[in-house]
Give the backbone structure.
Amino acid sequence: LSKLLKKRGISASTEAIESDPAKWAVKTSQILGAVVLLKGATTFVASEKNLIELPKATAWLATAGTGDVLAGIIGALVATNYIAILNDPEQLARVAATGAIIHNLAAVAASKDAPISATAIIEFIPEVIRKIIK
């Protein structure tokens, strides 16, 4: 995020962003006019009208490739909810937050309190979604 903001002429160190991620998620959303998901131990999703703070995620998500898994989950959710998002752009923030929750729950299920790979998370996504839908 620091590098993205720097390209926009805004100075924000990684330390500053990490010390107040909610502020920087909102600020970046306003600057870009877009929904921003700022992933960390606590993930924030900011949009024009909302700031969603998600529960603390498992530390096992700090593994190479897990961000790609998150992007795939969110992409699939956007594709299946695009009409709702077109009718209400604020839905995109909710969809992104839902994706992050699914991502974390799948990581918890995959880890069984041990290190995991990104591909291990993928195997548990359907199970997590089935539990959420019930």
User: Anything to note?
Assistant: The beta strands are 36-38, 44-46, 51-53. Helices lie at 2-7, 14-19, 21-32, 66-80, 82-87, 91-111, 118-133.
